[in-house]
Design a protein that fits this description.
Belongs to the UPF0065 (bug) family. Pfam families: TctC. It comes from Bordetella genomosp. 1. By secondary structure, the protein is an alpha/beta fold. The chain has 2 domains: 37-131 and 255-324, D-Maltodextrin-Binding Protein, domain 2, CATH 3.40.190; 133-247, 3-Layer(aba) Sandwich (D-Maltodextrin-Binding Protein, domain 2). The chain has helices spanning 3-17, 23-33, 50-66, 81-90, 102-111, 119-122, 147-154, 169-181, 193-202, 212-220, 268-282, 285-293, 303-324, and strands at residues 39-43, 70-74, 96-101, 123-138, 160-163, 186-189, 207-211, 225-229, 255-263, 297-301. Strands 1, 2, 3, 4, 5, 6, 7, 8, 9 and 10 form a 10-stranded mixed beta sheet that branches. Strand 5 (160-163), helix 8 and strand 6 (186-189) form a beta-alpha-beta unit. The longest helix has 22 residues, at 303-324. The chain is globular.
Length: 329
């Protein structure tokens, strides 16, 4: 057989074999090459909130690890759904991802009757990063220091309650407390936690439920007074702040769960690679210490565990949304 025939046969054999390369092997090859351009981390809330704080802690370290620029872009609107929708529409191979309160995103399908995407079908889990319990706090001029006192005060005078958008995780946590205690307050929605905190500090609103990570610095500075945290037991970081559960709402627990999700087009190998780097970064001593000092705990979940958690939160909060008859278009 001459050399030209051997080359033709070799080429034909290669063409026959290539399609039979296992999908996992092709995915692994793609992951080795990823990323090939800058990575965008979409934070669907204004600057200064829990997701933004974590995103800006992670981004420079992730950039160094991946050898590509990693940028944090704030895309607030529609309780985080605007930014989430942008990530869904990007539909790329892991170069655009979402960093958000995963619990809040799980609530959206129950609250929004015309949501343009289904988070369970159009987004995939990458990694859980951190958990921060909600803190119930008031403006220092409010004459209440316990949950019982704020409930009684709400029945005597108007209290404006700042929440990070109607249907957000802090809003539903406040609704659950309201249902359990009979409190009466007027909800004032914002586009993000940082704006809600600012107005409560300024006295435009008197009560707030928000992630401890973004709120604790203002409590320490005396600009807000903590009433309770929504954790099952007191935190060593703030041992003087009692829990909501110990003040009469048995078993109550809620919080902001910061995680990264991507379009469903992101393959398993790329998701695993990104998840591994994110888990390593949030567990770096200096990052972990900074988060802990501000009231957040590092909680890592892999892609599959994150989606299991997401679907569980979707079912959990759907019951609260139904009982409170909350609907948005």
């Amino acid at each position: 057989m001459d050399s030209s025939k051997r080359r033709l046969l070799g080429a034909g054999a290669a063409l026959c074999v290539a399609p039979w390369i296992p999908a996992w092997a092709r995915a692994a090859t793609n992951a080795d090459k990823w990323p090939t351009r800058p990575v965008r981390i979409i934070v669907p809330y204004p600057p200064g909130g829990s997701s933004d704080i974590i995103g800006r802690l992670v981004a420079p370290r992730l950039s160094e690890a991946l050898g590509q620029t990693v940028v944090v872009e704030n895309k607030p609107g529609a309780n985080g759904n605007l930014g989430a929708g942008l990530v869904v529409q990007s539909n790329d191979d892991g170069h655009t991802v979402l960093l958000c309160d995963v619990g809040a995103l799980a609530i959206s399908p129950s609250v929004y009757t015309k949501l343009s995407f289904d988070p369970s079908k159009d987004l995939r889990g990458v990694s859980m990063l951190a958990y921060s319990p909600h803190v119930l706090a008031v403006h220092p001029d409010v004459k209440a220091r316990t949950l019982g006192e704020i409930v009684e005060l709400s029945k005597k005078e108007r209290l404006n309650f700042a929440v990070t958008a109607i249907g957000s995780a802090p809003h539903l946590a406040a609704v659950a407390v309201q249902q359990a205690t009979g409190a009466k307050w007027e909800y004032v929605p914002y586009k993000g936690g940082s704006q809600a905190v600012t107005d409560t500090i300024g006295g435009q609103t008197q009560v707030i439920m928000n992630g401890l990570l973004a709120t604790l610095p203002h409590i320490k500075a005396g600009k807000l007074r903590a009433i309770a945290i929504s954790k099952s037991e007191r935190m060593s970081l703030v041992p003087d702040i009692p829990t909501i559960a110990e003040q009469g709402v048995k078993g109550f627990e809620s919080g902001t769960w910061q995680g990264v999700m991507g379009p469903t087009a992101v393959n398993d190998a790329i998701a695993a690679k990104l998840a591994g780097e994110l888990a390593r970064i949030v567990n770096l001593p200096e990052v972990k210490a900074q988060l802990n000092e501000q009231g957040a705990e590092v909680v890592v979940k892999d892609p599959a565990q994150l989606m299991t958690f997401f679907n569980g939160e979707r079912e959990r909060w759907a019951k609260v949304v139904k009982s409170a008859d909350i609907r948005l278009d």
